[in-house]
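Methods — Computational structure assignment.
A single polypeptide chain was analysed. Its primary sequence is given first, followed by the predicted tertiary structure written as structure tokens.
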Amino acid sequence: MAEVEVNGVRLLVEESGEGESLVLVHGSWDDRQVWALIEKHLARRFRVISYDRRGHAGSGDSAEPGSRRDDEDDLAGLIEALGLAPANVVASSFGTSIALGLVARRPELFRSLCGHEPPLLSLAADDPVVAEVSEALRPVLDLIERGEAEAAAREFIEKVAVGPGAWQMMTAEERASLVANAETFADEQRDPEWADADLDACSRITVPVLLTHGDQSPPFFSKIIAQLAEAIEGAEVRTLPGAGHVPHMTHPAEYVAVVNQFVAGCPSAC
């Protein structure tokens, strides 16, 4: 592992494998460890870079709450600092929101983008489930504000992300990671544009894009994916059977196969 300083923030980075560069961008509440089940398999073909986003696990943070734009700039800085451009980027959840924002601004940094279920809730604002999710997040944020990170993480897992009883089924390491990253989740939520999508900017994306969603995920994600796919010329959409919001953890072999197949078929990768 190494430390790379970008935009005044120190990021903890892990690298494995050789070949074309492939950068993994994790979502909220997580860190680079969330990719553990697929990273070694991807490294058989790629130079894989995983990192803790600012404020997560082993990386530093800024003195003031950051924004999604800051995370975009961090990803750009990392790609440039390590000489990875143009990079294949694989992103999950909020990490996909970050990657989409950056690729619209800096397409020269990307060879391809594979993104799973970005929580760009503005694209599904008319879905009643989205309103329920927004309401369920309020007590989570209140608990974080009161310094009760563990209670907040449990509330998020059992009332928002997974369901009752899920907290006890998680490993101690998984629970500890959630607790450690609770404050950064609150910072993300304070950004007034965290759930917004700029479809005009998306229409200017020129690199190959694959958007995936699981058939076990809340249906509003398919609405989000559909609007993004309509805006991004040539974007591919893939539904992952039996999977939900974290296919890299629940269906690692299948997810690796999807990523490998997509990157291999990208004209710019030839």
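Note: Residues 128-189 form one domain.
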